[in-house]
Specification:
By secondary structure, this protein is α/β, with parallel strands linked by helices. The chain folds into two domains: 2-173, Rossmann fold (3-Layer(aba) Sandwich); 186-286, Pantoate-beta-alanine ligase, C-terminal domain (Pantoate--beta-alanine Ligase, Chain: A,domain 2, 2-Layer Sandwich), CATH 3.30.1300. Helices cover 43% and strands 19% of the residues. The protein is built from twelve helices and nine strands. Helix 7 (124-139) packs across helix 8 (151-164). The relative contact order is 0.13. The mean pLDDT is 95. The structure holds pantoate (PAF). Residues 27-29, 57, 60, 128, 131-132, 150, 153 line the site of pantoate.
């Protein structure tokens, strides 16, 4: 496995490879876990060569304390990537990625960034779009792999590729879960034992919401989820939304009637954000 810290040396190495082989790309912010490794495994199956980037992108953090507290497990990350037989790792500095101006570009994502995570984390998706576009331009991958845990991010990256005319195929990878159902996240390592024990309640609630949505309307389902969290002693619901998978627009809840036709014509997902103490966890599941 080869490590690169500059764009110039990385591009030198990729130049000849790109002539005859396909390149699969997994962008990360480090603190790698099984979820990231499942992206690498998928990339290994799809492309001839796999490159992983590790860069904690400052412009996608809406709170400075989150950037400061972002876990860094560099040596462990490298060992894990070596075990997966990853071919290249790109670990640039902020200066390499942003020169002297650490600022996000403003994108028009056709409203995909105005709801859920975008509404709760101002500027987050402009930061993600900026760095992913820059990384795609540097790496020029044939395929790029994104986890469905950040489903909204995945849809926004697809929109970025479409709008910017980028020549890369985006491959979604299913959510990788702990045995008890908790979606893998770098933030899980920061949960205290008490919160870690309770955190699977998030996925359990999503699964019950799916059952309820199968026989009820969206309003009833949302009310049920909100009531379930009100009763929970320590987890705090930030939002639960039922949204169209493609547009991310919330299901119309004005009609109280059983929305069977709406549900059968379109694919809806349940999206959730929960505070476990100071740690914010997100998850989602298909409701069809
Ligand atoms: O999902 C992430 O880890 C980040 O948002 C990404 C895509 C690596 C961009 O910094």
């Amino acid at each position: 496995m080869q490590l690169f810290t500059t764009i110039k040396t990385l591009q030198e190495a990729l130049k000849n490879i790109a002539l005859t082989q396909t390149i699969g790309f997994v962008p990360t912010m480090g603190a790698l876990h099984e979820g990231h490794l499942s992206l690498v495994k998928n990339a290994k199956k799809t492309a001839d060569k796999v490159i992983v980037s590790i860069f904690v992108n400052p412009t996608q953090f809406d709170k400075e304390e989150d950037l400061i507290n972002y876990p860094s497990t560099f040596q462990k990350d490298i060992t894990l990537l070596q075990k997966e037989a990853c071919d290249f790792v790109f670990i640039p500095s902020a200066k390499e990625m942003y020169s002297d101006s650490i600022k996000a570009q403003e994108f028009d994502f056709d409203g995909l960034d105005k709801v859920m995570e975008g509404a709760h984390r101002k500027g987050h998706f402009n930061g993600v779009g900026t760095i992913v576009k820059r990384l795609f331009n540097i790496v020029q991958p044939d395929f790029a792999f994104f986890g469905e845990k950040d489903f909204q991010q995945l849809q926004i990256i697809k929109k970025l590729v479409e709008k910017e005319g980028l020549n890369v195929k985006i491959i979604p990878v299913p959510i990788y879960r702990e045995k008890d159902g908790l979606a893998m996240s770098s933030r899980n390592a920061r949960l205290t034992d008490v919160y870690r024990k309770e955190a699977p309640f998030i996925y359990q609630t999503l699964q019950k919401a799916k059952t309820i949505f199968g026989i009820n309307n969206a309003v009833k389902t949302i009310e049920w989820v909100e009531a379930a969290f009100k009763k929970h002693p320590i987890l705090e619901l930030e939002y639960f939304s039922i949204a169209n998978e493609a547009t991310l627009l919330p299901i119309p809840t004005s009609s109280k009637k059983y929305t069977k036709e709406i549900k059968s014509n379109q694919k809806y997902r349940g999206f959730i954000a929960v505070f476990a103490g100071d740690i914010r966890l997100i998850d989602n599941t298909a409701l069809y």
